[in-house]
Structure formats: C-alpha cells, structure tokens
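User: Could you go from structure to sequence for me? I need the amino acid at each position, not a summary. Structure tokens:
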C-alpha cells in the first residue's frame, strides 16, 4: 500500500476546512501483501497531517499485523 489515498483525503479536507483549523489529519486503512511473502496479508494505516496555513505535510505508516489465513 501507499499513502496516495490518505494524501487525497487530506487534500479534500483542506478544501473543506474551517477557518479555525490549524492542522488536518487524514487516516487511510490498508491491507497488502507482506513484502517478502506474497501469500500473507498484513493490515496497516497511512496517516497524513497537513498544516492549513503553510500546506506543509508529513506522512507515516503505522505498524502492521498479519491477518490469519483464509
């Protein structure tokens, strides 16, 4: 997974933000294949924080956990 959807969510919130807001936080959950074992799936989230005034952004991926086999 990549942070693209969380970035898009933050951009949409920036357009709708209140004049009193200082920061916008967007969180997007994800499921993806484990990097070195495509038979296993992991669950994680991307978080994007944007400064309303400057537009500066920071993003990070949460820790992940393996999902049980189907």
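Assistant: Here is the amino acid at each position, in order:
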């Amino acid at each position: 997974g990549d942070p693209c959807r969380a970035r898009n969510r933050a951009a949409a919130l920036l357009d709708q933000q209140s004049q009193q807001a200082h920061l916008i936080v967007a969180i997007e959950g994800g499921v993806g294949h484990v990097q070195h074992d495509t038979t296993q799936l992991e669950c994680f989230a991307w978080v994007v924080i944007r400064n309303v005034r400057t537009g500066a952004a920071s993003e990070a991926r949460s820790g992940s956990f393996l999902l049980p086999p189907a």
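One structural detail worth keeping in mind: The chain is about 20% helix and 50% strand.
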